[in-house]
Every structure is written in C-alpha cells, then in structure tokens.
Amino acid sequence: MNIDKVSGISPIYEPKKAGKTNSIEPVTAKKDTIQISEEARIQHLINIVKEQAKSVDTQKIQEVKERLKSGFYDTDEVLRKVAENLYDFSHTLLQDIRNQQNKKD
After folding, report:
1. With a threshold of 0.85, does the pTM exceed it?
2. Concatenated DSSP letters for 46-62?
3. What is the mean pLDDT of residues 78-99?
4. What is the C-alpha R_g of the chain?
C-alpha cells in the first residue's frame, strides 16, 4: 500500500499584528416587567372567590336560609356579629390574595 503526501497544506505563517479595535459601548442590563390590567386583577379575585365558594357547606347554607326566614338575624347583636365576621373574612381573603401575589413576584 502506498500513501502519497497530502497536498494543500500551507507553510506556517507569522502571527498577525493586532489592529485597532472599534470602541464598544457597554451593554446596559434591561429588566423584564409585566403589567396586569385592572380587568385581569378583578377576574383573578373573582376566581379566588369562586374557589372559596366551592368549599362552602350546602347544609350550612340551608340553615342560614331558614334562619333568615324565621327572623333570627334581625337582632342588633346578631347583625353586629355577622358584620364582624364578614369584615374578618374579607380581611383574611385580601391578605391571602396579597400573599399569593408576593409568591408570584
């Protein structure tokens, strides 16, 4: 078997001299941002309330309806207690929403 020399290999060249480089401006880092529309925020709140409503006991709802018909909630003491509970629930719900939004950020 006969192997011929490989042609086309050039002799070694001397290193090129460094030329002048173009000035490069520094790159500034851009941060990503998102904007959530008010409609999307409202829809998010509605979805959370819907999820909360799924866990409500239907038997309790029926009991409340019967108490409403019988006039149980017409006393000042009961109305004050219901208002306090609604306030506490809404405060807790809003706090949960804020916590969920902070986790996403």
Report:
1. no
2. HHHHHHHHHTS-HHHHH
3. 88
4. 36
